[in-house]
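Aim 2 progress update. The chain analyzed this quarter is reproduced below.
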Amino acid sequence: MEQLAIGHPEVADGVACWRLADATGVLDVNSRYSYLLWCRDFAATSVVARRDGELVGFVTGYRRPDAPSALVVWQVGVDAAARGQGVAAAMLDDLFDRVPEVDHLEATVTPDNKGSIALFSRFAERRGAPVRRSELFGSELLGADHEPEILFRIGPVDR
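Predicted structure tokens:
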């Protein structure tokens, strides 16, 4: 099996990211168009992972305009066949190390998403960084059928 190759996405990767997001069955799937735009406009703060030339994962992110030292992770998607192999953690580490002048990582996670809670908690452990958790958006804003989004603010992170 080929090594995992992690790099910034190209516009055409947006289609594969959209398909992968849909296939996870757990991510809020945005329009195909939005993934294309994301891979164009936020490629510097996002990564994709390939194995044997096939896209097996992605992390989309951006720098907060009012706090540019914070890298916000929007979505993490990993193909079912690649789960449990450290792909998400490898992409997260790689992305954080690629984005200059950031010392915090932020992400929102619903309370029932044990996988993402573990992913971000382990990132903080690996980096020796504190984690602060607070509700960012409650169900009253997201809709009664959506759990609250808990903000994980990790940092400062030593580089």
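Residues 1-100 form a domain with the Aminopeptidase fold (CATH 3.40.630.30). Strands lie at 5-7, 47-51, 54-64, 67-78, 104-109, 131-137, 149-154. These observations will guide the mutagenesis experiments scheduled for the next reporting period.
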